[in-house]
Amino acid sequence: MTERLYYDQAYLTEFEGTVLACTPGQNGCFNVLLDRSAFYPTSGGQPYDTGMLGGQRVVDVTVQNDEVWHTVTGPLAVGESVRGTIDWARRFDHMQQHAADHMIAGTLHRLLGGVTIGLHISEEISTIDVAMPEGLTRITDEEIRRIEWEVNERIQRDVPIRCWFPDEEELNVLPLRKKPTVSEHVRIVAIGDDEMVACGGTHPSTAGQIGLVKIVSVAPARGKMRVAFLAGQRALKDYFRCFEAAHSAAGLISSNVNGLAAAVEAMQEKLRTAEFELMKWKKEQLLSQTEQMIEEAEVLPDGTRLIARFVDADAGLLKELASKLIAGSGVIALLGTENGGQAAYVFARSAGIDRDMGALLRDTARPLGGKGGGRPDFAQGGGSPRILAEAAAAYRKPLQ
């Protein structure tokens, strides 16, 4: 069993330990077991510590059967006394995230009855999964703001954070937020007088050292509610980014930050109106060209006119154009519109022409990875821009 120094000394950054074992690992690394260690191993949703051990970089730390194993970049001699140095910036960031997790989880439980079932601290964001009463997977913006306010109010009061191993008698009477997942060596973390839960992670000694907590999203995840948050320096950096972005955007539209949302909303309304007018104009222009398209169409040996071309139109306008082109007699309209390397198609024919447009589009599109089909006189589909030329060539063949 490894003596875990971080349990009682979360702020310890240097220590001495004796190498009990050193075995080859993966990627040229070695796995080292010490008699005592301040390196936190990945557990409880909190990532491992990094740093230096005996002059070698520590790239992973795990726990197996109460033994803390360190993955290092070079071998260490068994029996040797080595110095370990913790990457304090990484450790303290994880301490801030983990303590914020407790405070959010405790507040969620107290206000809304949510039970936290998992924590994950990544390099950029932290998340907790919460089982809510009646299977709820969302909460209102007002509830989110209330949770944030209460958590940050306790941080500003700098309530104490205490970590200890109570004896069985004390453990049985403690007002824990939820039942411990282990039955022996139960470690308790209490934040202020309203949050207490079993936890083996590292935490600051007071809540004020968390600095700031910001919930960035609440969304369903695997049947539970996932709360994503930032704490400490992460939250402060996010505030700097948002501050700079908001003021920059406000300056670009000659507004101030307080009026930014209203100004953007007004711009969006103007844009919607402009887009509507543009689409209306494009529709009028395109439909006014139908007679010219028919006049310039390829005349086939049987006298029918073949129009095979791409046009600037959405799917609805493409159908309307095809319908207008085939309103007269003797017209084949193979129309497409391109978007992002793909194309949408409408194939149509005038009444009295004995060709199946659905079969033509389907048989041409399928070999090119596209799809399509429809009635003998009107079909729709999509796929490669090559489909149009292939379909036009296929249509001509029986008439040659």
Overall description:
- By secondary structure, the protein is an alpha+beta fold.
- The chain has four domains: 3-86, Elongation Factor Tu (Ef-tu), domain 3, CATH 2.40.30.130; 92-240, Threonyl-trna Synthetase, Chain A, domain 2 (Threonyl-tRNA Synthetase, Chain A, domain 2, 2-Layer Sandwich), CATH 3.30.980; 254-283; 289-399, Roll (Diaminopimelate Epimerase, Chain A, domain 1).
- The protein is 33% helix and 30% strand.
- The protein has a six-stranded antiparallel barrel with strand order 2-3-7-6-5-8. Strands 16-17-18-19-21-20 form a six-stranded mixed β-sheet, sandwiched between helices. Strands 9-10-15-14 form a four-stranded antiparallel β-sheet.
- A hairpin with a 2-residue loop joins strand 5 and strand 6.
- The protein starts with a strand and ends with a helix.
- The mean pLDDT is 94.
CATH topology of the largest domain: Threonyl-tRNA Synthetase, Chain A, domain 2
Shape: elongated
| Sheet with most strands | 6 strands, antiparallel, barrel
Number of domains: 4
Care to count the β-strands? 21
Q: So, the CATH homologous superfamily of the largest domain?
A: Threonyl-trna Synthetase, Chain A, domain 2
Helix-strand topology string: EEEEEEEEHEEHEHEEEEHHHEEHEEHEEH
Low-pLDDT ranges: none
End-to-end separation in angstroms reads 88 Å
Helix content: 25-40%
**Order of strands in the sheet with the most strands?**
2-3-7-6-5-8
Strand content: 25-35%
Number of helices in the DSSP assignment: 9
Radius of gyration: 34 Å
The second-level CATH architecture of the largest domain is 2-Layer Sandwich
